[in-house]
TrEMBL record:
The lineage of its organism: Bacteria, Bacillati, Actinomycetota, Actinomycetes, Kitasatosporales. Residues 10-128 form the Response regulatory domain. SUPFAM superfamilies: CheY-like. PROSITE patterns: HTH_LUXR_1 (PS00622), HTH_LUXR_2 (PS50043), RESPONSE_REGULATORY (PS50110). It comes from Streptomyces chitinivorans. This is Response regulator. The modification 4-aspartylphosphate is found at residue 61. Residues 152-217 form the HTH luxR-type domain.
Length: 224
């Protein structure tokens, strides 16, 4: 228990470089309310460690031996269902097909390894509470480069006018509060629309909804 009496966030760090794992453990372990409960040096180790320890958040490198972070992410989300942890990809290069594939697989977002310690801590807290870590410009860049290779993914449903508007604003990286301001509606209304969009798209979270929007051609990657 931490000073607030709540259980700490349990975190697993998966990276094939020991120095990276050590640095991440040191940063996160020094935070109140966070505990690094395990480490993994390969994707296969990440899967077994996560299944054994049931953490809240996994920091997942995308390039690892045996099983890369993308396949590890897919496996964990598919096999653990609602018990799966939130997965945050930690990568060296943001404009990388591995990052895009990790987002397609269900990662809640990505963070660069050169990010400052406070950015790392904030990102872990963000995804732990169920939000997604998206950088609009970076996601648009990734979508422009890689979404055309996955064309054919369909929205599979008809969105209402309001839901379509919400999805477009989500794709441009707006938060619920920002969407509410843009649409001149209450935050609760936006939350309802977001939930409806996720349900209709069969998306696990906002990230997957945004990826579907780009790959279906519903949203095109460009300035908004």
């Amino acid at each position: 228990m931490n000073d607030t009496g709540t259980a700490p966030l349990r975190i697993v760090v998966a990276d094939d470089e020991m120095l990276v794992r050590t640095a991440l453990r040191a940063i996160l372990g020094a935070q109140d309310g966070m505990e690094v409960t395990g480490e993994a040096a390969t994707g296969a180790e990440a899967v077994s460690t996560v299944r054994a320890l049931r953490p809240d958040v996994v920091l997942m490198d995308v390039r690892m031996p045996e099983l890369d972070g993308i396949r590890a992410t897919e496996h964990l989300l598919e096999t653990m269902g609602e018990d799966a942890p939130r997965i945050l990809v930690v990568t060296t290069f943001e404009n990388d097909s591995y990052v895009y594939d990790a987002l397609r697989a269900g990662a809640a977002g990505f963070l660069l390894k050169r990010s400052a310690a406070e950015e790392l801590v904030a990102a872990v807290r963000l995804v732990a509470r169920g939000d997604c870590l998206l950088f609009p410009a970076a996601v648009r860049s990734l979508a422009a480069r890689y979404a055309p290779h996955h064309r054919g993914r369909s929205l599979r449903t008809r969105l209402t006018g309001r839901e379509a508007q919400v999805l477009r604003l989500m794709a441009h990286g707006l938060t619920n509060a920002e969407i509410a301001d843009r649409m001149a509606v209450g935050a609760a209304t936006v939350k309802t629309h977001v939930a409806a969009v996720l349900a209709k798209l069969g998306a696990r979270d906002r990230t997957q909804a945004v990826i579907t929007a780009y790959e279906s051609g519903f949203v095109t990657p460009g300035p908004h």
